[in-house]
Design goal:
There is one protein chain. The chain has one domain. The chain is built from 5 helices and no strands. The radius of gyration is 14 Å and the shape is globular.
């Protein structure tokens, strides 16, 4: 199925906002799924001020509790750092 999705991505760009990517990698999700998603979706798209405000409002309205993002093996291997 991943191969079929990857072929579709070649025809139609598929992206993910950085805030959604961060939520995804906070899991729980196995490292292999993070690698597959990174390959399929490419580099996460940065947020502008409006998008960040909407994301924060939706997060707060959802009742989710804030969890500190940590740098685990599964999170740090999906994309190289930009340093």
């Amino acid at each position: 199925m991943l191969e079929r999705l990857a072929k579709r991505r070649q025809r139609v760009p598929v992206n993910i906002f950085a805030v959604a990517w961060a939520e995804f990698v906070c899991g729980p999700v196995p490292p292999s799924a993070i690698e597959d998603a990174a390959e399929l979706l490419g580099e996460p798209v940065p947020l502008g001020g409006i998008e960040a405000s909407v994301a924060a409002r939706l997060f707060n309205e959802s009742g989710r509790r804030r969890v500190a993002a940590t740098s685990s093996d599964s999170q740090s291997s999906a994309f190289p750092s930009r340093s």
